[in-house]
Amino acid sequence: MSTPQTRTVGDVLAALPDNGSVLVSGAGRETLGRLPYQLLRSSVGVDDAAVIVTTEDAGDRLVRQFTNSGDSPARSRVGVVDATPSGHRQATPEDGIWSASSPVDFNGTGAGIDRCHDHLDGDAVHLLYDTLTTPLLSADSETVARYAHHVSLRVDDSPGIGLFPIHTNVTSERDAARLKHLFDAHVEVRKCGGERQVRCSGVDNDWCGWQDLQDGDATTEFSGIV
Predict the structure, then answer these.
(1) For residue 148, what is the domain's CATH number?
(2) Residue 226 covered by a domain
(3) How many other β-carbons are positioned within 10 Å of the β-carbon of residue 138?
(4) Under the phi-then-psi rule, with left for phi > 0, alpha for psi from -120 to 50, and beta for the rest, what region is 159?
(5) What is the total count of domains within the chain?
(6) pLDDT at 19
(7) Which domain covers residue 167, as residue numbers?
(8) In a domain, 69, yes or no
(9) How far apart are CA 41 and CA 155, in angstroms?
């Protein structure tokens, strides 16, 4: 058996389609770490913008965390749709934060994504939906799949990448398989011997099997309810 290569976040991003939707799966947030957010940060060019849909962390807190490092996009180029449970949620459109009434308010979340696109000025608008697992815990899986497909088509209609994580420890194999078929590519994350490994499928370049992820490239940074 060959020794896995060591990959960086940049290597993972380079394997993904420039304009398309990507499922990112791992056994919970501790396994995924901050890889989805690092992929989003790395996607956003100097003239690009980012939209984050949050179902776990309060929008104002999330945007502060996301924009607090030197490689982050400017705050004015980040929009947030806060679909957290009641009590965490807030909307301040003047700060680029819109709200939906709950994680399963799909109409409100979709409208928030549209408003972010209208508000942001960028050559490309990249999207991160923090996790589809949260709505899957409360709504019919077929409804969530239809909604995810709708959002992925919204991503495909304009320049930019869409990232859609799920937590496989609380998502059934059937639901995960159904979602996988909706996206252009799939990034899987696992822990092996305490180290993170990644595997990409649905990509054009040669990515064979599991590859080690460079230490520090996916350290857990964001806390949530799942």
Answers:
(1) 3.40.50.300
(2) no
(3) 12
(4) beta
(5) 1
(6) 87
(7) 6-213
(8) yes
(9) 17
Query: What is the chain written as a DSSP string?
Result: -PPPPEE-HHHHHHHS-SSEEEEEEESSHHHHTTHHHHHHHHH--TT-EEEEEESSS-HHHHHHHHTSSTTSPPGGGEEEEE-PPTTT---BGGGTEEE-SSTT-HHHHHHHHHHHHHH---SSEEEEES-SHHHHTTS-HHHHHHHHHHHHHHHHTSSSEEEEEEETTSS-HHHHHHHHTTSSEEEEEEEETTEEEEEEES-SS---S-EEEPTTTT--------
- Domain membership of residue 222 (yes or no) is no
Q: What is the CA 133 to chain-centroid distance, rounded?
A: 12
d(CA 145, CA 139): 10
- Residue found under tokens 């054009």: 204
Query: Residue 90 above 80 pLDDT?
Result: no
Query: Is residue 16 within 8 Å of 164, Cβ to Cβ?
Result: no
| pTM of the entire predicted model | 0.90
Backbone angles phi, psi at 187, to 5 degrees: -110, 120
- Compute the half-sphere exposure of residue 216: CA atoms within 13 Å on the CB side of its CA: 0
CA atoms within 13 A on the CB side of 202: 18
pLDDT above 80 (res 215): no
Q: What is the pLDDT of residues 113-152, one digit of tens each?
A: 999 988 888 889 999 999 999 999 989 999 999 999 999 9
User: Is 225 within a domain?
Assistant: no
Contact 161, 85 (CB under 8 A): no
